[in-house]
Amino acid sequence: MLQRAHLYAYIPAKDVVRARAFYEKTLGFEPKRETAGGVMYEFGDRTGCFLYPTPNAGTSKASQAFWQVDDLEREVAELKARGVRFEEYDTPGLKTKDGIATSRGNKAAWFKDTEGNILALVQNL
Predict the structure, then answer these.
(1) Sheet containing 48-53: which strands, arranged edge to edge?
(2) Domain total in the chain
(3) 72 is in which domain, residue-wise?
(4) I need a surface site. Which of 27, 59, 92, 100 has the fewest CB within 10 A?
């Protein structure tokens, strides 16, 4: 039953006003609606996320959400032009070059929002 339901990610924000400026001005998101002190954004295939206020924002060391893209290099270049800084990793099993990691079946790039949340772009190869 859940396999056919639409999934929405939760994105925590210590400062929703600051976070909204990043998501809407830097990333270009258009808000769908405001509710419970936060804001909903919708993406392709009726997926989306809810940006919500909480003092726990930025505490996860793992990715909060990722966007599946067709051309990772193009998306990274466009976001860099908008001021987004991509993370660089050099650990066993994960090494980025110019913000992009390539593995057996995909490419990925990670960045942080104003709240310290880790977000990713992924392209299947």
Answers:
(1) 8-13, 48-53, 38-42, 31-35
(2) 1
(3) 2-124
(4) 92
